[in-house]
Amino acid sequence: MPEAVVTLSGVTKSYPKREVLKGADLSVNAGEICALSGRSGSGKTTILRIITGLTSFQAGTLTLFGESSPQGLRKARGNIGTAFSGGFFDYMSASQSLAYYCALKGIPKGKRQDEIRHALELSGLSGVKIKYRNFSLGMRKRLAMANAMLGEPKLILVDEPFNGLDPQGVLEIRGLLRLLNETTGCAILLTGTERRLDENSIADSLYVIEDGRIRAVAKEGSAS
Known about the structure:
Elements: E1 4-15, E2 18-29, E3 33-37, H1 44-52, E4 59-64, H2 70-76, E5 80-83, H3 94-104, H4 109-123, H5 137-149, E6 155-158, H6 167-184, E7 187-192, H7 197-200, E8 205-210, E9 213-217
Parallel strand pairs: 3-7, 3-8, 5-6, 6-7
Antiparallel strand pairs: 1-2, 1-4, 8-9
Helix pairs in contact: 3-4, 4-5, 5-6
């Protein structure tokens, strides 16, 4: 049986005026690409924030790499990379941005240049000297994924990787996600506003979040 790197069981999350998650269940196995789709406000980002520890939940269980205790979860989160929007400085280049995050993540100085070079090569940003303020949307998304690669994570969380991109940008990001998965063996959990061909074509497992609950769906062209 494949080993799960993240499992949510019966997770609930409420804000003062709204119950977002009503017993959500989700499992992502080692080495797979998993897509979680849903409408805006359905709870996709909340799921990612729970996994990374940026927000709490009221009930249920979160297990990361076999750990579910508060201390175990803190340690396990060191194996997670995140590709979320924002978080970069306008005046920095791609390499400068990654150097900053290498230091922030505590990557040893002797490993930083190799990590940065590898991340830039995989993301297609090698040799790019312009500052972040002049990056296209596609370049910004690729830099976010390059940052997520630092530290050799076993799980990468990617929030809305295709949102706002033109068809060529979608192809580039889709190829990068598959390349990253194949070359590093890391699991990837990505979110999308709706179940699209972009997600369906690269994901091994598909889930939809509706009314606070998550259900698995069959890939197009596969048996249900």
